[in-house]
């Protein structure tokens, strides 16, 4: 869209904040009868899910949550590890380990849930952090809080919202690395979502982080298909629209790539972008730029 060209990267041509809105129900290439079938199938899935959702309210176990999501989307998960053949992947060796940090790209309210599939021991302690400033993280304690935080704010939030919702903040210093030493730590360093076509400039100060860092750093790239399930812009109070999109989706495919033991943290963003430096947008398309885009954007989300 030409009127939003200010927020298109000159080098790559990527507009990372522009929502992808071509769902099956508004696709002109799909006939009316097929759209009706999609709607009826979505309604049927909703009916089937109701008892499982009620059970989850009483017994909020992760395996029930995964079952709900499997019914909802027929999730197909594909995990790769850089430098390791698929047949040689050992989940106890190559999946996230305690005492290590994993930088993750941020595109959907479901990212927390996808990371749950990488935990090999449900008893392992873990932390999920979202970059809030150059040297501060917000700690998100569960998948539902992460989901609502992402849907409502997409990582763009005022100090008033932060204070009123009681999010815990952690500062990057020597104490931070003592706190995390016995935990799996997932960090979303962009601090806000994109549409999955790139990795945004990091909100955190990676140089300061590297100066204090005493643990192994890895990256995780998550790519979700269909891409209309990414949410580069906040839904605000209209969060039901996202659940509707999940219901009309026949199958969700998620590709996860783990890149272990990053030696040079200057390259973190590239590895988060599936090792593709040529599809990284410029530093000017940061969270401040996104705030301006949100005010200017008048299209669909």
From TrEMBL:
Transmembrane spans: 42-69
GO MF term list: acyltransferase activity
Pfam families the UniProt entry points to: Acyltransferase
InterPro entries in the cross-refs: Plipid/glycerol_acylTrfase (IPR002123)
UniProt KW Transmembrane keyword: yes
Keywords: Membrane, Transmembrane, Transmembrane helix
Keyword Transmembrane on entry: yes
A biological process term (GO) from this entry: phospholipid metabolic process
Domain Phospholipid/glycerol acyltransferase: 96-220
Protein name (database record): Phospholipid/glycerol acyltransferase domain-containing protein
Species, as recorded: Saccharomycodes ludwigii
